[in-house]
């Protein structure tokens, strides 16, 4: 899903308050100030990439302050990787202080911070990555907080170009395509940050195992509709034995097969409630998400949700919108 909102439709006196409310509710609690409240302008775009969120901000110069009280009030527990596309951004966090113009900068929503967009109109693309999805040790990543990171060479340039392309072309993609692109974006961001820290191969074994697990999760997510998606297929595609794959999932709440079944059921559950797909037969939706047997799908669905797929669809369509 892609949401785009601009301040142009609001009264001038309401624009800055709207921007403050939008950032605090959609991103994280934070205090914002500006010297341009009387003529403030802003546009905000938000894109759901499944494993991550990508936001685009263009606004008049603004100052930000996230205090310990703000962190306690609401912490999405995200790492935020921002590409500064217009103007310059000054950021302070964890004792680091940098001015970023045209580059990338990493911040942590769980820590207080001070920031300021300076100059004229400013802009940034902000990738919000759940901390558990970033397969790098937290103590190592902390070294990069509030540092100016180059976005014009190597993996930084590739990541920057990809983010810009997503913002331009993403609104024309389906939710399934955006989720697939989210996995690619996370891989690029992880590779970029790992490069800043040194060779990922030097990371502790636990971090490498977590990185492999996240890759497997993304592979499952991108191939749920494949009838041939099995633990053996996953192991083969990741150059490991099935036994090693099961060991990788050893401390996870679900086994490999259970993870596949749960995610397939969740995607089918959502499709059955979608008004745009009301003309699709239940069996077609089941097949879309990797269920070869309509009977097997109905049984698994009833076991998971307590009602049949047909009953769920009828209840969803009858519910007030």
Notes on the protein architecture:
The structure is a single chain. The protein is 44% helix and 22% strand. With 321 residues, it is α+β, with helices and mostly antiparallel strands. Strands 1, 2, 3, 4, 5, 6, 7, 8 and 9 form a 9-stranded antiparallel β-sheet that branches. Helix 5 runs antiparallel to helix 6 and helix 7 crosses helix 8. It is globular and about 65 Å long. The two termini are 18 Å apart.
Proportion of strand residues: 15-25%
Q: Which residue ranges are poorly predicted, with pLDDT under 50 across at least 5 consecutive positions?
A: none
| Quaternary structure state of the chains depicted | single chain
* Average pLDDT: 88
State the total count of DSSP E strands.
Answer: 9
Order of helices and strands: EHEEEEHEEEEHHHHHHHHHH
- Give the structural class: alpha+beta
- Main sheet properties: 9 strands, antiparallel
């Amino acid at each position: 899903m892609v949401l785009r909102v601009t301040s142009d439709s609001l009264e001038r006196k309401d624009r800055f308050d709207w921007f403050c409310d939008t950032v605090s509710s959609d991103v994280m609690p934070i205090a914002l100030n500006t010297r341009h409240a009387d003529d403030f302008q802003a546009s905000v775009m938000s894109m759901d990439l499944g494993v991550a969120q990508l936001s685009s901000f263009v606004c008049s110069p603004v100052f930000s302050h996230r205090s310990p009280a703000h962190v306690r009030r609401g912490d999405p527990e995200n790492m935020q990787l921002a590409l500064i596309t217009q103007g310059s951004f000054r950021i302070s966090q964890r004792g680091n202080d940098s001015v970023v113009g045209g580059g990338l900068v990493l911040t942590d929503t769980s820590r207080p911070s001070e920031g300021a967009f300076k100059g004229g109109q400013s802009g940034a693309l902000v990738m919000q990555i759940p901390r558990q999805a970033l397969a790098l040790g937290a103590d190592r990543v902390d070294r990069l907080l509030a540092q100016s990171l180059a976005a014009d060479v190597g993996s930084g340039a590739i990541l920057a170009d990809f983010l810009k392309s997503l913002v331009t072309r993403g609104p024309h993609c389906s939710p399934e395509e955006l989720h697939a692109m989210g996995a690619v974006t996370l891989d690029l961001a992880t590779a970029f940050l790992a490069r800043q820290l040194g060779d990922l191969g030097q990371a502790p074994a636990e971090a490498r195992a977590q990185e492999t697990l996240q890759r497997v999760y993304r592979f499952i997510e991108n191939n749920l509709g494949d009838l041939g998606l099995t633990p053996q297929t996953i192991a083969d595609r990741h150059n490991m034995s099935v036994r090693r794959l099961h060991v990788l999932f050893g401390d996870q709440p679900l086994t490999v097969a259970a993870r596949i079944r749960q995610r397939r059921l969740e995607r089918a559950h959502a499709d059955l409630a979608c008004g745009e797909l009301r003309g699709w037969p239940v069996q077609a939706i089941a097949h879309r998400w990797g269920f070869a047997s309509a009977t097997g799908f109905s049984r698994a669905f009833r076991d998971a949700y307590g009602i049949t797929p047909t009953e769920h669809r009828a209840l969803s369509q009858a519910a007030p919108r």
